[in-house]
């Protein structure tokens, strides 16, 4: 016993102690009764009522009933009346980590009634409220101004005209010695791709939509 008394005590030791006493009470009732084990277990479990290390011991539908206390670990500044009302960060001065009692659910004498909920203190959060449990997604529409559309269309039209002019010039003078030395076929392919690119630029922006996808705008 002396060796066990030197062991460090845990918070749940009292619950284990009360559970053993409940089993002892159940076993004693079984010895004093001639009923079946299942019937004795149900009857005795519903009638158990004693004061243990963790408070009043009572059972309902196979589960223990009693007081349920909800607490919150919060870093706050202590007031003059020893209450914690202003949350803070532990790195700040006069900021201490303490436990604040939030809710208390308590049964009355009758086990059939619902427990009564007592609000002891408000829940405290750093900032304007509880931390977010997900990322907020904001949909923002981006539109092209008419002036930008006109400017891009004019530049694309000029580029289209110049590309068509060079392409016609290259085809018309394809038999010329200097033209043949400059790889006319490759030049025609490049100019044709430029024509298609400028046409695609104009057709993509016409008619000018009120809203456009950001990736489409980047690709343009």
From TrEMBL:
Protein origin, superkingdom: Eukaryota
Keyword Phosphoprotein: no
Stretches assigned to the G-protein coupled receptors family 3 profile domain: 147-212
Stretches of the chain forming a coiled coil according to its record: none
InterPro entries cross-referenced by the UniProt entry: GPCR3_GABA-B, GPCR_3_C
Main location: membrane
Membrane-spanning ranges: 144-173, 185-206
UniProt keyword annotations, A-Z: G-protein coupled receptor, Glycoprotein, Membrane, Receptor, Transducer, Transmembrane, Transmembrane helix
Signal peptide: none
Membrane topology recorded in Swiss-Prot or TrEMBL: Multi-pass membrane protein
One MF term in the entry's GO annotations: G protein-coupled GABA receptor activity
Cellular component, GO annotation: G protein-coupled receptor heterodimeric complex
Keyword Glycoprotein: yes
Location relative to the cell: Membrane
Pfam families: 7tm_3 (PF00003)
GO BP annotations listed: gamma-aminobutyric acid signaling pathway
Name of the protein described by the UniProt record: G-protein coupled receptors family 3 profile domain-containing protein
Organism: Rotaria sordida
């Amino acid at each position: 016993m002396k060796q066990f008394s030197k062991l460090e005590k845990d918070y749940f030791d009292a619950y284990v102690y009360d559970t053993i006493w409940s089993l002892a009470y159940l076993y004693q009732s079984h010895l004093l009764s001639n009923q079946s084990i299942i019937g004795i277990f149900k009857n005795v479990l519903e009638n158990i009522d004693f004061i243990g290390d963790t408070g009043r011991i009572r059972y309902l539908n196979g589960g223990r009933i009693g007081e349920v206390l909800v607490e919150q670990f919060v870093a706050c500044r202590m007031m003059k009346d020893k209450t914690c009302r202003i949350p803070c960060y532990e790195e700040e001065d006069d900021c201490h980590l303490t436990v604040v009692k939030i809710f208390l659910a308590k049964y009355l004498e009758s086990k059939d009634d619902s427990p009564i909920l007592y609000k002891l203190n408000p829940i405290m959060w750093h900032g304007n409220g509880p931390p977010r449990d997900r990322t907020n997604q904001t949909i923002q529409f981006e539109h092209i101004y008419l002036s930008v559309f006109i400017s891009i269309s004019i530049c694309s039209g000029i580029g289209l005209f110049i590309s068509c002019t060079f392409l016609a010039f290259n085809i018309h003078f394809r038999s010329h010695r200097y033209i043949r030395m400059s790889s006319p076929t490759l030049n025609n392919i490049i100019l044709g791709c430029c024509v298609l690119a400028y046409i695609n630029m104009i057709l993509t922006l016409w008619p000018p939509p009120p809203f456009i996808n950001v990736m489409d705008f980047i690709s343009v």
